[in-house]
Amino acid sequence: VYVEELTREASLELLARAGVGRLACAKEGQPYVVPVSFVLHRPPGGDPCLFGFTTPGQKVDWMRANPLVCLEWDEVGAPDCWTSVVALGCYEELTGDDPETEGGGRELALRLLGRHAEWWEPGSAARAAAVHRSRAEAFHPIYYRVHIDQVTGHRAVPGPGG
Ligand SMILES: Cc1cc2nc3c(=O)[nH]c(=O)nc-3n(C[C@H](O)[C@H](O)[C@H](O)COP(=O)(O)OP(=O)(O)OC[C@H]3O[C@@H](n4cnc5c(N)ncnc54)[C@H](O)[C@@H]3O)c2cc1C
């Protein structure tokens, strides 16, 4: 098996069509990873970022305490045939419609996430789980952006022997 490095551009293209990945955050040295839906946004002339939404809970509490996050996506066909992308970035909560913010704010996040038909489903599932755990809190989705500082991609391809 060969493992080749993907270019930054190829890695971003994979994130653009990924839809769901694993978001890692850390608090006081303890890592925490959960699957989340996201949309890649590439403002003309600006740095790429990811938009997502979340229900209130542990990951938001932790990202507020420490905004440095990592997002991972992978596709595994076989032990010698897989692709993965890892992005390091910084969490920013979108609290309002701030047209002055580069790339837009909450309004833009809503518009981009709304394009994906299934984007709301996991949030509903998370809410159902929260209700199941007898949490009385109201459902207030929080929109956020992850500014991508670094992105790398690896791809495994079968060697000549198969
Ligand atoms: C395919 C997919 C896409 C998803 N997309 C989103 C999204 O876009 N936005 C969003 O908010 N949520 C999404 N979820 C749900 C998400 O993974 C979390 O379960 C949820 O957001 C709650 O996270 P929290 O940190 O707020 O947990 P809390 O409700 O605060 O609960 C924390 C406790 O629950 C456990 N826990 C939390 N999540 C999981 C999990 N997924 N699996 C096992 N244990 C868990 C933790 O270990 C911890 O003990 C998605 C889930 C899936 C499977």
In short, what is this structure?
The chain is of the alpha+beta class and 162 residues long. The chain has 4 helices and 8 strands.
What does this structure look like?
Strands 1, 2, 3, 4, 5, 6, 7 and 8 form an eight-stranded antiparallel sheet that branches. This protein starts with a strand and ends in a 5-residue tail after the last strand. The relative contact order is 0.27. The model has no long low-confidence stretch (mean pLDDT 83). The chain is built from four helices and eight strands. Helix content is 24%, strand content 44%. A hairpin with a 2-residue loop joins strand 2 (20-27) and strand 3. It has 162 residues and is an alpha+beta fold. Residues 20, 34-37, 52-55, 57-59, 122-123, 126, 130 line the site of flavin-adenine dinucleotide.
